[in-house]
Amino acid sequence: MTIAETGRRGDDRWAGRGQPPPGHYGPIQLIASEWTKLRTVRSTIWTLVVTVAAVIGIGALATAVTAAHWRSGGIADHIGFDPTARSLAGLFLGQISIGVLGVLTMSAEYSTGTIRSTLAAAPNRPLVLACKALVFGAVALVTSEVITFAAFLLGQDLLKGTTPYASLGQPGVLRAVAGAGLVLTVVGLFALALATIIRHTAGAIAAYVGVMLVLPLILQAFPVSFQHGVIKFLPLVIAENMTATRPAVTDFGGAVLFSPWVGFLILCCYTLALLAIGATVLTRRDA
Amino acid sequence: MAGRHLSRRRQRAHDLDSERVLIEVEDLTKNYGSTVAVDHLSFDVRPGMVTGFLGPNGSGKSTTMRMILGLDRPDGGHVTVAGRRYGDLPWPLREVGGLLEAKSVHPGRTAYNHLLALAQTNGISRARIAEVLELVGLTGVARKRAGTFSLGMGQRLGIAAALLGDPGVLLFDEPVNGLDPEGIRWVRLLLKHLASEGRTVLVSSHLMSEMAVTADHVVVIGKGRLIAQATIGDFLGASSNSHVKVRSPQSDALAAVIVSSGGKIARMGDGALEVSGLSAADIGDLAATRGYALHELSPQTASLEEAFMELTDESVEYRGARSGES
After folding, report:
1. Which residues on B lie below 8 Å from A119 (Cβ)?
2. CB-side exposure of B281: number of CA atoms within 13 Å?
3. What pLDDT sits at residue B236?
4. Which of A283, A20, A48 is nearest to B72 (CA)?
5. Contact call for residues B104 and A120 (beta carbons, < 8 A)
6. Is the same domain home to B137 and B273?
7. Which residues in chain B have their CB less than 8 angstroms from residue A286's CB?
8. Looking at residue B251, what is its pLDDT?
9. Of B212, B235, B258, which closes a domain?
10. Looking at the 3D structure of chain B, how many domains does it have?
């Protein structure tokens, strides 16, 4: 087919072009587009596969090994044993892989240059970011909840008969398991927001890992009395507290932490604040 | 026949639209730190013709085009497209299509999915995706990852993306860069065809010779400043010895027609005609209406290159040390 053939009706078509649809582009169009973008690159599949494997696999491994060693192990293995936390042992790695997906969802737009076609198609930049975050958040939430419940149920099944085990009806257990999925989702969005601000994949992943994992280590160089004041604000501490059935006081040398839901709310505030900063710089900067 | 039909259609497009300004650049300024990339630039782009946007590398063409597409924020002045600020367009891709110089495709995504994600933002149908893939000749590789594409195929995909919304305004930044001769010819034909449909076509290039065969109108800039804005005819006319080289098996008959239409003829030793006073388009139309075959129709643009170099000489940002100047 030549150009002339395909464009034969072009003159009339353009001169009397059919009216475009009423209204203007908006969330419905952008959400559909962001969903297409997310599902059509391999990195999405791979980071999700790693997240699933990390959370379910490590949880299963940790509970299976616990059950195998329970009788030969000493009292040190038994004291403070939390079957829920043991089955969610893969959460730590899961937070990293979901964070990588959050970063890539945004930073790939910059590394590949698609940010320009994205923003030329939809110049309302905060709306673009909101729709991207919404689509990523929905995918992350569904995936995370499915895998944290799967990890919990599989883990308890492996423990059953040998060690104490948990059920969703026990105090704090449902909150810890569902909370684990919520935490994964929110830290993924946290990473997406960082990538919006930093715009480089490696830089954003470094910043994310730094805030999540390295900050608690740095804090150890400070006086204990100082640590106690600030440790409850760390994302990692909030995440651990939300996903434990008992307050994780002993892990942090007696520091008083926020209640799980208050901590989670604070984590949400961090993420919203970063997204707001992201929307602002995205609007101000040249694409 | 075809030629006459095209020119009539073109004429109609002119009658309808030539008074309308589809891209209006006014006093546009852009700084990068202390470097002035675009310096109080003003020009208009009208529909129904190809407007060439000329300037040496680094003269601010790409920056200007990005500002037209709302991607870069001007430090001063403003741009309107189809009478509006870009950000106020209700369905941007249905009004304006852009091909930017830098690639903007995810290498891991297929051509089809790349276009699908774009189409969805502006509520464009899947049928239209198939249409533009057909138009640029990528239907067969639509399900291949864009990362496997050659430069030429990547360029075609970019053009498909620009045409997706069937927009009335089209911007192409150096569309023939890196293309083989066949690809270059294809782009030229496409640009002219789009303009003949009454669309507004702005195409940037640093090659005068390219614009001489494609553009109807030129905007020349250097160091971010406007140097000239003229029809290609005026631009050609500014150079006294510009001419078109014509070969035809019916060269005597054609020569008579050309002379009667106001052209001047010089015969060259090898049987070619050197025509001045008529554009290549005029001669092509004349030959087509009489049914004469043309074996060559080439505007001789050496003088244009010179005019261009002269115009932009002082505005070239970076140049190597000139020999003989020590």
Report:
1. 70-71
2. 14
3. 64
4. A283
5. no
6. no
7. 66, 71-73
8. 86
9. B235
10. 2
DSSP output for B69-118: TTSS--SEEEEEETTB-GGG-SSHHHHEEEE-SS----TTSBHHHHHHHH
Instruction: Check which CATH number belongs to the domain holding B168 and give it.
Output: 3.40.50.300
Cβ–Cβ gap B120/A17 under 8 Å: no
The ranges assigned to domains in chain A are 26-284
Q: Decide which of B235, B256, B271 is a domain's last residue.
A: B235
Q: What is the pLDDT of residues B12-44, one digit of tens each?
A: 444 445 567 899 999 999 999 899 999 999 999
Identity of the residue in A4, A117, A284 whose CB atom sits nearest the CB atom of B104:
A117
pLDDT digits (tens, 9 = 90+) for B225-283: 998 898 887 776 655 456 788 998 888 888 888 888 888 888 877 888 888 878 888 88
Asked whether residue B152 falls in the same domain as residue B67, the answer is: yes
- Which CATH number do you get for residue B251? 3.30.70
Q: Which range marks the domain in which residue B271 is found?
A: 239-312
A13 shares contact with chain B (CB less than 8 Å): yes
- The answer to whether B77 faces chain A, any CB pair under 8 Å, is no
Is A14 close to B198, i.e. CB distance below 8 A? yes
What is the pTM for the complete model shown? 0.82
A249 band by pLDDT with thresholds 50, 70 and 90 = low
Q: Are residues B137 and B218 in the same domain?
A: yes
- Regarding whether B142 and B194 lie in a shared domain, the answer is yes
Sign of the alpha-carbon dihedral angle for A111, A116, A117, A119: positive
Question: Taking residues A43-48, what's their average pLDDT?
Answer: 96
Comparing A220 with B167, which gets the higher pLDDT?
B167
Asked whether residue B122 is assigned to any structural domain, the reply reads yes
Q: Mapping DSSP to helix (H, G, I), strand (E, B) and coil, where does residue B180 land?
A: coil
Question: Which residues between 112 and 131 in chain A have a beta carbon less than 8 angstroms from any beta carbon of chain B?
Answer: 112-124
Question: Is pLDDT at A210 greater than 80 in this prediction?
Answer: yes
